[in-house]
C-alpha cells in the first residue's frame, strides 16, 4: 500500500524532521499493544492530514507539519494514528463499509500481513485512508487511547485538544 501512496503523492525527505519524528515514535511505540512497524513518512500535500496503514506505517503531510504547533501536538497526531493501526480500525471500518463476513475479513488480514494484497483492495484502502473515513465510535476510542498513550509517553494531553480544536 505504501508503494501506491508514494506513487500518487511524492515523499519528502527531510533529515531533521525525520529525526524528530523518529524520536517521537520511539517515545510512543512502547505504549502500543501490537508490535507493528510504527514508522512515519512525510508526503507533499498542502492540507493538514495524517493517516496510518494497516501495518503501522503512518504518513504526515507537509501541510500537517506546518499546522502543528509543538512536539506535543505532533505526538498527539502520531498517538492517534498509531492507535488506529494498533486497534485494527481499518479492518473494522472496512467490514462495516463492505458488509463483509468474518471469513473474508480474516482473508484480508492474512493477505495484508503477507504482502499479497490485491490491487482493488489497495486502491480501496488508500482512498479510505486518505479521507480518514472512520466511524465516530472508532474516533472516540482512538482519542481516549491516544490520551492515555500521550500521558505514558510523557506528553501533555492538552495538545490533543488544541490540535483537534484547530482542525
What attributes characterize this protein structure?
about 10% strand; 4 strands; about 170 residues; alpha+beta; four-stranded mixed beta sheet; 9 helices
Short description:
The chain is of the alpha+beta class and 167 residues long. 63% of the residues lie in helices and 8% in strands.
Structure description:
The protein is an alpha+beta fold and 167 residues long. It has nine helices and four strands, in the order αβαβββααααααα. The protein has helices spanning 2-8, 15-28, 62-67, 71-86, 89-98, 102-114, 119-131, 136-153, 158-166, and strands at residues 11-12, 40-43, 50-52, 58-61. It has a four-stranded mixed β-sheet with strand order 1-2-4-3, sandwiched between helices. A hairpin with a 5-residue loop joins strand 3 (50-52) and strand 4. The longest helix has 18 residues, at 136-153. The radius of gyration is 15 Å and the shape is globular. The mean pLDDT is 84.
What is the radius of gyration?
A: 15 Å
pLDDT average, as an integer? 84
Helical fraction equals 55-70%
The largest pleated sheet is described as: 4 strands, mixed
Number of continuous helical runs: 9
Structural class: alpha+beta
Distance linking N and C termini: 26 Å
Count of DSSP strands: 4
Strand order of the largest sheet: 1-2-4-3
How would you sum up the global shape? globular
**β-strand amount:** 5-15%
Sequence of secondary-structure elements: HEHEEEHHHHHHH
Instruction: List unreliable stretches of 5+ residues.
Output: none
